[in-house]
Amino acid sequence: MAKKQKKQDLIALLGAYLDGELSDSQAEKLEKQLAQDPESQKLLDELRRISQSINRLPRIEAPSDLAEGVMNQLERDLLLDRSDVLAEMAGHKHLVWRRIFSAAAMIVFVGAIAVIFYNVFSKPQNGSVNRETISKVVATKETAKEKPAPVNAENASRAAPIVSVIKDKVNKIKMDLGTIPQIQYSHVCLIIKEDTASHQQTTLDNILDVYHIASAIQSKSPDHTRYSFVCYRDQFNHIFNDISRQARLDLVLSDDRSQAAIVVENITADQAMKIASEANPTIQLAYAMKMASTPTTPDLAEPMDFPQVFYELLAMGEPEFTELHTLGPRINQTRPAPQDDMPAQSIAANQPADMTPELTDSASPEQPAQKPKIMDSAPASDFPAHSQPAELVAVTLIVQNQ
Amino acid sequence: MDPGLSEEGILIKRCRAGNMVAYSQLIQKYQDRLFNAVFRMVGNRDDALELTQETFYRAMKGLKKFRGSSGFYTWLFRIGMNLCISHHRRQQRVHMTSMHAGSDEFGHQADLLTAMARNKKQETPLQQIQLKESYHRVLDALDELEAPARAVVILRDIEQLSYSQIARILEVPVGTVKSRISRARMILREKLIDNHEPD
């Protein structure tokens, strides 16, 4: 027993010597001992060989999907409202920034709504704005220039710090590492029209509860209540169907580049799902233009706030703009038509003549637009070659008080 | 940006602010080392993947608690090794599994070792077989160690960490690291050294 203990002590000493854990004086003393003791020297050689054989075991590289799995898990937590992960990570500062941005967004939104209603009720002589025309609008940059709406311009400038900056920087975050999934979001903005808005709001709260949309952002004003949330496509489908049983739903789409806005009145579930399944705003717009009929002047002051939805709901914290990259040119170049609904001609060709340049000038034909990586689970085959199937839908519901 | 922060410190700061890109960069930086160490702890690729992912997930979750005094790597390995030791205890409760022999993982390990041996073109076929056998013997010997002892050996001989770093990762005194590693080496010597003198 004592012999075994003595051996273990010697192994500990020799091991510490091999591992460089002895002081200079201890090492020197041991080396003298080793020179006089072949048994200890042999033991030292054995220990060295053992360490070397373990060290020489093949290094196993991490599977390529390891990081993707972690990021997916974190994203799932966020979407399932287990936001403690990033909330803990971001800490108090993160919450403070969220509150500040929420408050700023609320101020901008209330201002925008006030401006719209001022326009609608106080300036009917403009001819371009009333409640009815909100529902059937297609506008181009050209027409917007011909009929400038000062109030909208004012709103746009007020919204700039949040909408423009975050839209530019956050809307197109590039996960620039190959193993990180690029989740594609579509954005769908719907106006719910019903006479008894308060009843509608209660119903809507219940519907969102039923489908576990726990992290919807609700913005209330005297005239509107806006809900923003992110959900899966299936959830969106159910939510849409439940709401559409009780109220009329109008789809609102806008494209910043072309300054176009379009409203599809009384949108059907199929139409809504088609829009919700497509993350590429240009293709969304093309679908919507096919669904809508008469082009008129727009009167929509930032009805959608996708970057804010993204920012708020994914709890990304205050974005560090230096770390964010855009995905490159927006995929707006002429592209093949969607399979079933679109005729065999380009989207640009399907649009009004004065809109075409705005939709086609952003990417040159020689420089094909970068196609972001899409989640494996996205049913890419169901979509046109250049489309960006969306797994998730950022939804904005605007309940109008009538 | 704080000029005093290291590149890693900057990444961690960004992670705390909710920057997922920064976190993915941290994962990329450490995933191979951590996965290899975890794989050597559990001896099974699927378990190693799951435990490594869980380690990064928990690290993200607890980033607020990370003080930065011992380095992100140490902190990450602390989580990883604790998960491996817990996993080992769970496995022992359910059933005893070998690190490779008799399990599906055997095929993978064997293939890996064969490939490794094949890559050494200067080796003769006989030497390749000997090398493969040698790896198997090492893996068998590691398998004999209790999880805490195996962790010490892996951190020392594979990760080349000092005793004090190992002590910080495993949250034990340096003396415990010394005694664990010497006991582990005694066992390894019995298994790996032919004709060693009985103690």
- The secondary-structure class of chain B comes to mainly alpha
What integer value in Å does the Rg of chain B equal?
A: 19 Å
Largest sheet of chain A: 6 strands, mixed
What Rg of chain A is obtained from the alpha carbons, in whole angstroms?
30 Å
Give the helices and strands of chain B as they follow along the chain: HHHHHHHHH
Overall structural domain count of chain A: 2
Strand content of chain A: 5-15%
Short synopsis of the structure:
With 402 residues, chain A is an alpha+beta fold.
Can you offer a commentary on this structure?
The complex is a heterodimer of chains A (402) and B (199). Chain A is an alpha+beta fold. Chain A folds into 2 domains: 24-51; 83-400, no CATH class. In chain A, 47% of the residues lie in helices and 11% in strands. Chain A is built from 14 helices and 6 strands. Chain A has helices at 2-18, 24-36, 38-55, 66-79, 84-122, 131-134, 141-146, 150-170, 197-210, 233-244, 269-276, 281-291, 306-313, 356-360; strands at residues 185-193, 217-220, 224-232, 248-255, 260-264, 392-400. Chain B has 199 residues and is mostly helical. Chain B has a domain at 1-97: Orthogonal Bundle (Rna Polymerase Sigma Factor, Chain: A). Chain B has 9 helices and no strands. The longest helix of chain B has 23 residues, at 20-42. Chain B is globular, with a radius of gyration of 19 Å.
